[in-house]
Amino acid sequence: MNVHKALFIYIVWVASLSAGLSGLVYGHTSERKDVDESGWRAAYCPLWIPSPTSPPFLTVKAGDVHRLAWLLQHAQPGTVIGLEEGEYRLGADSSLVVTQPRLTLTGLSGSRESVQILGGTITLAVQADDFTVANITLRAPKFHGIQVYGEQGASRIHVYNVHILDAGQQLFKVSTGDGRKGKFSDDGVIACSRFEYTTYAVGTDRTPPSYTNGVDLLAGRGWIIRDNVFSRIRSQAGPAGPAILVWKNAQDTIVIRNMIIDSWRGIALGLAPPDRQSRGGASVLYDHQNGIVENNVILALHEPADAAIENNFAKDSRIFHNTIYYTEDLDHAVPWSIEYRYGPTTVIIKNNLTNRPIRKRFPWPTSRAEITGNITQAKREWFRDVFAADIHLRPGSPAIDYREATLVSYWDIDGTCRPVGVRPDSGADEFVLPGIPLPAEAPCARKKYGTLPSDRMFTR
Length: 460
Fold this sequence. Notes:
Number of domains: 1
CATH architecture: 3 Solenoid
CATH class: Mainly Beta
């Protein structure tokens, strides 16, 4: 036995021993642990702050809501608006309305928690193209943290490192109008952000607590939703809309590397039969087309949940390499994790790792789904620490080099190339030992995939 192989075996043994010991201190299922976002986001979420030396660059002093509101409607297109650290409080009936194109609104420090915009009806009402918002927190609006007006054609919207919490309705909403002749919001990016309720959704004087989503995207085309955290998108009773809902014949959506924790529902491509708001009108066949849901993590750890991934009136959904874990001793709303239903739906479901079945639901889809490489009986001990949202595989996990898995995705949630072994691992994580370089003989090390995909970073 050569020295390198002996060292490798020793490291695996130590890692296995450490993992086994850590399992003794997991605690009860009611134990809550903070989610460490730094590891899995590192490859895809660099710090970004526009340079003040690139004019036009205008600064807003802490608390100066009036100047901020004026700039969003009158600043020269291409202006960067930098917010000093502090709180900006909106009146109960106020919104910050963006009517000028090509504006950027950002906190100056890069820390989203250091710049907070509080209250209002809709914190940011975006009615112009090419708006970028970054490095800020939007807290407790009556309706939405951000609403993008698709009916006015507001497109190429970029959200980066933004924290939206405790909205009365949807935290982030893309609205639409008449689907036959209206305009739509296309080619947006929502990245490296956090959407959550600190307790539960409480609703408004117009709508119940269940009327909420993390992202509610109607009729848009070409949106990317990546590297975000969604937490507690639910009402106190439980029911709420999906954390990520893309519908009204939305198209070409990429939902990748998001983490959804203790939310009532996870990701939905399509929801209901098409109607007049659907892109193309009520006569279209689909509620979503050409969606990719890949390398996401969906966990129901402390409270019951409904389905993790839904495909409804959805054409050509591709559901690849997601990790889903529901605590076994909770009374969940349904006994499955991934579902597909309604006649027009066509779907490919591959290489997912879950501890609940994949289900075809009535009304039955008329086309046969392609379902391979999935594991639906995952165990808690297969993961490093699932109750801390660490879904990296432990040495020896049956998901590693899963015998039925085939290569459909080149990169995992951390940016590790696939496959490291003979076959790709099921789920969002491709197993490598921490701190150990990828072996030169790994199959993916010999392939030329190019650099990490940028997923159309907000800087384009």
